[in-house]
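Much of our argument rests on the idea that a fold can be written as discrete symbols. In the encoding step, the backbone of a single protein was reduced to a row of integers, each denoting a local shape. We regard such an encoding as a compact summary of how the chain folds. The record that follows shows the chain in one-letter code together with its fold in token form:
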Amino acid sequence: MESLEAQYTSLVEAVDSLQDAIALHEEILKEKYDYDLQFSLSDDDPIAHTHDLKRVSRLERLIKATRDSVIQRFEYSIDQLCKHLKNYMEKEGTANPELQSPRGIIRLAGKIKLLSEQETETALEMIDSRNRTSHLYREEVAQIVADAAQIYYQLIRTILTKIKPMTKV
């Protein structure tokens, strides 16, 4: 079995990758927003309009690709987080049948006060979002999860801070 320290390092790398994906997605969204604003202020030149349609199409493809990257990295980060939390709590002496599922792991982390009540609630929503994206992929769901990714990312960082002192990284 991988050591707790190695798991923590893998989790941090996964979360860093999630942060990078979120930043890139936000950058592309801003570029599209700026372009839409610029286009709305320009004249109706037919040649420019053709070029504009190509650029809009490219930006829309990039938005979808970066959004999907955020979701994939989000899913992986959640998987790594749950795996690490389970092993962390077992090492701390918290043996419990609830440690068999991601929701159970989060609930138990809340019960032992590793997570606050609000953090537990948000983490459970995060698990539900992860399950929706991996089991039922729909554009609307993907967009909702991508929009919430920054909040979930912040929560994961908070959890990392709470469990770091017990690992030697």
Residues 15 and 29 are 21 Å apart (CA to CA).
